[in-house]
Amino acid sequence: MTGTQGTPAIELIDATKRYGDQLALDHVSLQIQPGEFFCLLGPSGCGKTTTLNLIGGFLPLTSGELWIEGRRVNDLPPHKRNVNTVFQNYALFPHLNVFENVAFGLRMEGLPGDAIRSRVDEYLGLVGLEAYADRSPAQLSGGQQQRVALARALAKRPAVLLLDEPLGALDLKLRKQMQVELARIHRQVGTTFVFVTHDQGEALSMATRIAVMRGGHVIQVGTPREIYYRPVDRFVADFIGESNVLEGELVGGDGGTEAGRVRLADGTIVGAARTAGAPGSGPVAVMVRPECLSVGPEEPPSGSPVLRGQVIDVAFLGDHTRVTVRTAAGDVVAARWHGDRATAAALEGLSEKEVFVWWSVAEAAVIAR
């Protein structure tokens, strides 16, 4: 394997990590391309932080291979890998000011003073902290400290920047601001970012691709849109945002990723797109996001999958109205309306009424149960 054009920034091949009898990572193979903002997403204990620590060299592989920029690094210590890490707790030196915190790694590398000054000024400018160079970390807010940690990591110009839940200690408003900032900085520097989070919103808003993990396995890799609208199974569908899942039996379709027909518990047959990972026959589920459902008192034109049901709740939630319906098959589904006020008010009048629920076949997916 050589560092030719097209070589992945990071490649894991059958990567396995055990802690005694506990299997933390189970034969994971994964490629991350240069310049990606790649998110490792999953619940606690899924293996995402273990994966990050393996890449950073903080943990040894039990078996398998790890390549960075076409170089096998299984036995290389962290300081000999072209990566740097931003941790959740920032790890700033309290006795050094902002400038010296960012300069620390560059001094360790032996860069001359003028080059250090230029590099620190460049990256403090990138994170918007030029005016804070003389301040101590204690004089900064949490968000500002996070920016200093980011500038320090990027100043060494690593090929890969590892970010271990770096926004977890921030409040909600500041976390959302930093999501925007991180995406902007990534676009400017072009460094490969590998970002660990359990927050689906963070991953969807920033990543170019996402790996959803569970129990030491990578369940699905794809763009945010693919992961959200075309999950491979119920775990991914439920973990990534809110979903309506209707269980049934696959009774027809054109195969591949064409439309499939699913018979629900009450005998209703509905259509949905067949995803690449969907079963070819037998028990399946139809997944449709709340914003893709329509609800109304009159049956829609033919061609759309349609369910009958009764409205059991209508809730105005500011930016949208949520309508919850119990279908004839016994499933409870939720629709989300982001439209005009008049329609939202009309939806509120549907409480306890018999209604129809429908969707576009292209906006639903047949998934594994």
Description:
By secondary structure, this protein is α+β, with helices and mostly antiparallel strands. It is 25% helix and 34% strand. The chain contains 9 helices and 20 strands. The strands form 4 sheets. Strands 6-7-8-3-9-10 form a 6-stranded mixed beta sheet, sandwiched between helices. A 5-stranded mixed barrel has the order 11-12-13-20-14. Strands 15-19-16-17-18 form a 5-stranded antiparallel beta sheet. Helix 2 packs across helix 3 and helix 3 (113-126) packs across helix 4. The protein is globular.
What's the SSE pattern?
EEEHEEEHHHEHEHEEHHEEEEEEEEHEE
Low-confidence stretches: none
| Class from secondary-structure proportions | alpha+beta
Number of helices: 9
Mean pLDDT: 90
Shape: globular
The order of strands across the largest sheet is: 6-7-8-3-9-10
Determine the fraction of residues in helical runs and give it as a percent range.
25-40%
Tell me what portion of residues adopts beta-strand conformation. Answer: 25-35%
User: How far apart lie the N and C ends?
Assistant: 39 Å
Output the radius of gyration. 25 Å
Largest sheet: 6 strands, mixed
Number of strands: 20
In short:
The protein has nine helices and 20 strands.
Protein topology:
Layout: E1 10-19, E2 22-32, E3 37-41, H1 48-56, E4 63-68, E5 71-72, E6 83-86, H2 98-109, H3 113-126, H4 142-155, E7 160-164, H5 172-189, E8 192-197, H6 200-206, E9 209-214, E10 217-222, H7 224-229, H8 234-239, E11 244-253, E12 259-264, E13 269-274, E14 282-288, E15 294-296, E16 306-316, E17 321-327, E18 332-337, H9 341-348, E19 354-358, E20 364-367
Parallel strand pairs: 3-8, 3-9, 6-7, 7-8, 13-20
Antiparallel strand pairs: 1-2, 1-4, 4-5, 9-10, 11-12, 11-14, 12-13, 14-20, 15-19, 16-17, 16-19, 17-18
